[in-house]
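Page 37, continued from 36.
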């Protein structure tokens, strides 16, 4: 059988990219090839390049797997429907009627799926994993109907098998902390891709590109959106665009609204407070102007970190965290609209 027949990438996005993330690819290949990792989470904000990275990885590790199956969580109302779809790919074509009968219960389906993960070397990719989590709660809190995902992840993390589950998410799932078979790769801004993206658009003032890239967090999707604005409003002149006294969001606003809609009230309070600080905040001391307890501050920061909305700043003393200019600006905007 041609191994290509065992790839189901029909639900993978059709994406275009300018260059590879070599460092991240090396890390992922090592985890898969040498460490026999069972679950890998690729974590990052929308548009940062999680799906692109997974698509770049596939050709480099395909020889290690019998099956590669990409599933977009958005397309499956329940875990059972997702598992059945995967099992249909992994089981012989002549057993379809038996499969439907066998896989009606979640527990049965979990066991059947684990059996297939033992029988074959499978790479399963779950895209848009954040959709199984609740809005308005701390990061990684399952929707009540989706708590069975947690059980499946635990089973995959702790069972003996030769497969790998790759999760692409804007929120970090709480998976078997300390389990040596589970790893998380948090991806950040990508300077090289952003530079090439601006180059493709023939924007002027190359000496100001780095300033523009840093302002929008090195996020390729965000830079692409802002690139449209630079062309439409400033004829491609980056210096003119940057001379604007206020940070311009344009079509980015809708993306940021969706991100903020998912936050808990505690996280919003932390973001609003951080947005009004001039510099990175030290959470090792209780800030005089923070309206809640020190414990709440830590809880909020940890949850926001699991959403890639706050970043730790390396300092010799203290525990410093900061937020990106775009998040800071949008937080201030929201706070002003609520007052």
């Amino acid at each position: 059988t041609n191994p290509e027949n065992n790839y189901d990438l029909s639900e993978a996005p059709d994406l275009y990219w300018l260059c590879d993330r070599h460092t991240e690819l090396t890390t992922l290949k090592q985890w898969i090839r040498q460490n026999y990792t069972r679950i890998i989470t690729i974590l990052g904000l929308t548009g940062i390049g999680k799906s692109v990275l997974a698509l770049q990885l596939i050709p480099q590790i395909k020889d290690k797997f019998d099956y590669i199956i990409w599933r977009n969580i958005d397309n499956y109302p329940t875990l059972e429907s997702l598992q059945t779809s995967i099992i249909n790919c992994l089981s012989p074509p002549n057993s379809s009627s038996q499969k439907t009968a066998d896989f009606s219960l979640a527990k049965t389906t979990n066991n059947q799926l684990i059996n297939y993960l033992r029988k074959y070397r499978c790479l399963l990719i779950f895209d848009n994993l954040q959709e199984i989590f609740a809005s308005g709660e701390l990061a990684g809190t399952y929707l009540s109907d989706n708590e069975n995902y947690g059980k499946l992840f635990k089973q995959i993390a702790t069972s003996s098998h030769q497969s790998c589950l790759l999760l692409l998410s804007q929120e970090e799932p709480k998976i078997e902390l300390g389990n040596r078979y589970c790893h998380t790769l948090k991806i950040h801004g990508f300077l090289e891709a952003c530079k090439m993206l601006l180059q493709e658009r023939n924007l002027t003032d190359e000496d100001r590109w780095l300033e523009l890239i840093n302002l929008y967090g090195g996020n390729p999707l965000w830079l692409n959106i802002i690139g449209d604005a630079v062309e439409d409003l400033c004829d491609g002149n980056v210096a003119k665009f940057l001379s604007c006294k206020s940070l311009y969001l344009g079509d980015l606003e809708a993306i940021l609204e969706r991100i903020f809609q998912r936050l808990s009230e505690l996280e919003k309070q932390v973001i609003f407070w951080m947005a009004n600080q001039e510099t990175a905040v030290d959470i090792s001391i209780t800030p005089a102007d923070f309206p809640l307890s020190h414990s709440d501050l830590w809880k909020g920061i940890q949850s926001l970190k699991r959403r890639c909305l706050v970043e730790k700043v390396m300092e010799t003393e203290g525990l410093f965290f900061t937020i990106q200019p775009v998040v800071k600006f949008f937080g201030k905007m929201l706070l002003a609209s609520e007052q």
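The chain is about 45% helix and 10% strand. Flag for discussion at group meeting. The first strand starts at residue 7 and ends at 8.
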